[in-house]
Automatic annotation (TrEMBL):
This is Carbohydrate sulfotransferase. Its EC number is 2.8.2.-. The lineage of its organism: Eukaryota, Metazoa, Chordata, Craniata, Vertebrata. Its main location: Golgi. It is found in: Golgi apparatus membrane. It comes from the Eukaryota. The gene is Chst8_2. Belongs to the sulfotransferase 2 family. InterPro entries: Carb_sulfotrans_8-10, Sulfotransferase. GO terms for biological process: carbohydrate biosynthetic process; dermatan sulfate proteoglycan metabolic process.
Amino acid sequence: YPRLRTKETRLSEFNQTKAMLGSYTKVLFVRDPFHRLIATFLQGMGISSSFSSFIQEVLDSGVHNGSVAWEPLVSLCRPCLIQYDYVVMFGFLGQELGHLLRRAGLPGGSLLPELTDSQVQWTYRWLSEQMFSELSAQQKKQLSHFYRWDLAAFPFSSSFLSD
């Protein structure tokens, strides 16, 4: 449905039946919410000049009035309503994508770019430390509350927000 595919279209906006959803293999790719915020900020999607002011912009927008780039995954993807066949966490793509391709009957290794998950994880750990230190205690608390359902639904055990 090309006319429905826009940059801001949410899964919940599609009028799909359970039978139709049941006929597809459903894959959900998830990422630590704090890493999503860092990526969004670095891509210049916020109008703020500092990370702290960008975070305040996110918090001020609220859960349902903000951008898809930082809206909680639970709101976007409805994991409580849709039974996903696979949940793949960012940072484990190299391990998981080959498995998914083989399950789909495709050659697992030949279609994948080389993924260096350990380097990505180390870089985001370093960035997280730097950017988390820019935030006030109040902003940290508000962010943890903002993403509380994502943190409860997915195992982001090393997230700065779950501390």
